[in-house]
# Entry
Amino acid sequence: MKKNIKKTMAAILAATMTMSMSACGNNTLMQSLTEPTSEAVIEVEKDTESPTEESVTEYAVVESTEAPSPEYEYSEGACEEYIQDNSMNYGLSTAKGDVMIPEVEDDTVFYTNEYNDLAENTWQAVKTAPLSTFAADVDTAAYSQIRNGIISGYGVDPGQVRIEEMINYFNYDYETPKKGDKFAVHTEFAECPWNKDTQLALVSLNTEKIDFSEAPESNIVFLIDTSGSMFDENKLPLVQKSMCMLAENLTEKDRVSIVTYAGSDEVVLEGASGDDYYEICSKIEELEAHGSTNGAAGIETAYEIAEKYYIKGGNNRVILATDGDLNVGVTSETELEKLITEKKESGVFLSVIGVGYGNYKDNKLETLADKGNGNYSYIDSIFEAKKALVTDLGANMLTVAKDVKLQVEFNPALVKGYRLIGYENRTMAAEDFNNDKKDGGEMGAGHSVTAIYEIVRTDSDMDIPSVDMKYTDNEEENEIYGEGKYNDELFTLRVRFKEPDADKSELLDFVCSTDNYSKAGSDNLRWAAAVAAFGMQLKDSEYMGTTNERLILTLAESVKDSDDDYKKEFIELVEEYYDQIG
# Structure
């Protein structure tokens, strides 16, 4: 099955070869890889003192006594052969042997990845909680981490699984916004495939795509982690190739600076013209990994440079590339949140790119992106770099709406219970929806946000526990919702957002009527349902009902989108996962 996934991606990778070749660099790397063929795995969960429940997972992998794999050499002269080989290996980190693992003297490998382990959203009674409020989320890091874990053979930590990021990784066939509108909105509902007593409701909003070459001027600061932990081939070398791919899309109207950090920070390039590709990439290729990781110092300097070259009305952004292993200076999530919250007031946006495995700090990188007016991607291959930094360049690098919040009000005459699938770390208090001081999410040009609810209709046999209400359980209330003018409205979707340079939000509202029902749902709903079901399977969710491989694949294969290689890969990934677990 791994071969099928690699084969599916080969065609797309062929288009990236030229860009990747330009970023190969002049470094020579000798690395001996020992792939365990027989492993004893010990997993230890540690409780931390973080205010959020954080999953710090250490894996001790005791290698077998069988002969190790032979050494290989990667050098400038072997660059073309390396990329060609990896076009069939689906990038740098899809084959298990391609993942570089730090070794210790006793031949034991320790993984210290960190994730925030969040409890799933539970059932809510419309009678007592008719409003569901959450911030928009366009991050995609969770899906690419999950993919890397399955294909590389390391498995999936439940803390990696953020279902909303899995759903929003994919493209959907939504209508484009009408002229003059910021968003296009889509709502619908259908029968739930894993629970006969419930239905699925989908809400989405999307922005118009913009050709990045026609976008406003950009002031971009590459903030690159060059500490010793970034030595592995799927870390700094992959970042170098990725950043050069991005640099190829910049023009003379753009300004580029490069800041690095290890034990201290360094300004490598300042205010260069975006069309000076040779100068930009030469500086990137010269970078080497060494030393400790003082990320806070790098963030401070990067924002200073971004403010120095600030373009009013332009795209001002810091792009941070790291494994998140901060060990000097400001290192805790709480301290990082405070730092980045202060920096976002400058009007500079943030894009976070995570790389690597073994000592990966997903929790810290997600905090930086969420609190820094930004987005968060994980790059495990040249293929994923092309998606994040070329194909989705406008969406990830050009913010068109900030502090985007969604609020769904369910009609108690038609719906008695609901559960938002995913968005656990994006939910908000109902009153925060109208509070412009409370952050929402950022959306770029061409971004779409999709959310699905599992809902229980009032005529369902499923019980939703609630309490009796003295002041709302009355004839007048029943008359309004039961027999009045709203009895054909399932729910109302409200959207708040700010323009990128504004402090005051705008409000939009949309109604999902009972006419928006179809038994099987659209291709969009079925695809989102397939991805959500897989996410629930990975989390071993108590809400997944009858979810199994057949259900997921039936939903996914029913979608008529045969030209989408990302969706083809998802189907193969599901098959690979179930092959692994037997």
The longest strand covers residues 399-410.
